[in-house]
Design goal:
This protein is α+β, with helices and mostly antiparallel strands. The chain has two domains: 12-91 and 128-293, no CATH class; 92-127, no CATH class. The protein has six helices and 14 strands. A six-stranded antiparallel β-sheet has the order 1-2-6-5-4-3. A six-stranded antiparallel β-sheet has the order 9-10-14-13-12-11. Strands 7-8 form a two-stranded antiparallel ribbon. The chain starts with 11 loop residues before the first strand and ends in a 6-residue tail after the last helix.
């Protein structure tokens, strides 16, 4: 079964909480009952705990927290879905040492304008990846568990629009992700009236998400080129980039040749770390939110 060709009842969905800079993952209670989440002696959990030196793993969908090092908080059950929320972590943090480029002045030595390395703050920065890896690893575990659809779920409200798979590793391409867009959301994207406005709404979320993790206010995001957050769409097929070396998600090659009414697979390029991965997940979440607000897949 695949959402590319079939309308399958929704078993999970990803959203972005704009007011909190947080990702929300909603999982069908019926899915949890029909596909029990078995973690006893789970190889993936033990391997990630060893590789990333996580302190703990909360394994109940009905407890206060879920995931590695309390990555998610449980915000309750609504309309038959368990709701888990994860605040995006700050990765780039201020250090107590002066910036090694401007010597703590906050000014560019040659031109006198603001130092782009320290955002004019005159301090150096460190990268603390611990929380980002914990959140990414928890998503990877959850998306692996949620990979298989459950067609027998008796959903009376909406179809699955997007499915996602991720990996979490400390190496090149270690934040890779891929997935599928359903036939319903693809049909909607092909017929969006004002594409530029739609893409700008997605871009605002990715900039906000990356800025939160970068430890930078939105009015300081000019340090990144507009191309870093490139958004393009052609005939309903989406390209979404974030800062990095041609880093982003795009349609899988074969789908450009498919002119039918089916959905399509997407994959990624050069997604190397959790900050890039979580930014792209935020963009996909925003896409999902826009589609739901438009009534896509609702019946």
């Amino acid at each position: 079964m695949s959402i590319i060709r079939e309308n399958i009842p929704c078993w999970y969905e990803l959203s972005f909480i704009n007011t909190e800079d947080a990702l929300s993952l909603r999982i069908s209670e019926e899915y949890l009952k029909k596909r029990p989440f078995i973690l006893k002696d789970n190889v993936m959990v033990m391997d990630m705990e060893q590789k990333f030196d996580f302190k703990e793993f909360d394994n109940s969908f009905y407890g206060n927290n879920f995931g590695f090092d309390k990555s998610f908080t449980n915000t309750g059950i609504k309309d038959g879905f368990v709701e888990l929320k994860a605040n995006l972590p700050v990765v780039r943090k201020k250090d107590d040492k002066p910036c090694d480029i401007c010597d703590g002045t906050g000014k560019n030595k040659s031109f006198g304008d603001e130092c782009i390395r320290c955002d004019g703050n005159g301090v150096s920065y460190i990268y603390d990846w611990k929380e980002a890896f914990a959140l990414s690893a928890t998503f990877t575990l959850l998306f692996t568990y949620l990979y298989m659809p459950e067609k027998s779920i008796d959903s009376k409200s909406h179809y699955q629009l997007i499915t996602i798979c991720t990996i979490t590793q400390k190496e090149a391409h270690g934040g890779s992700l891929c997935g599928e867009f359903s036939k319903a959301i693809f049909s909607w994207m092909k017929n969006i009236g004002c594409v530029e406005s739609f893409l700008n709404s997605l871009k605002m979320v990715t900039v906000k998400a990356y800025g939160k993790m970068w430890g930078c206010k939105l009015d300081k995001m000019e340090v990144f080129d507009a191309y870093d957050f490139k958004m393009m769409m052609k005939n309903g097929r989406l390209i979404m980039d974030c800062p990095g070396d041609a880093c982003g998600i795009h349609p899988s090659e074969y789908c450009w040749m498919d002119e039918g009414n089916n959905g399509y697979k997407f994959s990624c390029h050069n997604v190397d770390n959790p900050m890039q991965q979580l930014t792209l997940l935020a963009g996909l979440a925003a896409l999902h939110d826009e589609a739901r607000r438009a009534g896509v897949g609702v019946f």
